[in-house]
Sequence to fold (106 residues):
Amino acid sequence: MNITGKYLKAWRVEDKGSFKIIDLGDSDKNQDGTYKNFTWFRCLFVSKAAQLQINEKDTVEIINGKITMEKYQDKWNPKIVVFDAAVVASTAPANNGSFNDSDIPF
Fold:
């Protein structure tokens, strides 16, 4: 199943060098206007997505990804694999290239 175009919240990020493992938060809107929230655990970010700087609480747009089924100990579990993504809202402090005297370490 294709998950392209989804916006998800990064809750936990493990950088493994050539790939990342990220817990992603998702939600569905109920008919009464409330939301049902859930987490996709241990999503695999590979290829271009693995090269992104993703911090906890960043919002990520999936540009190219899919849900597959993975067999583990005779049970089938969903697994998200992300090939390309974009960080659309980052929690990292902005660096506008300027600094003040308090930035100097001496």
User: Anything to note?
Assistant: Strands lie at 7-15, 20-29, 35-45, 59-72, 75-89.
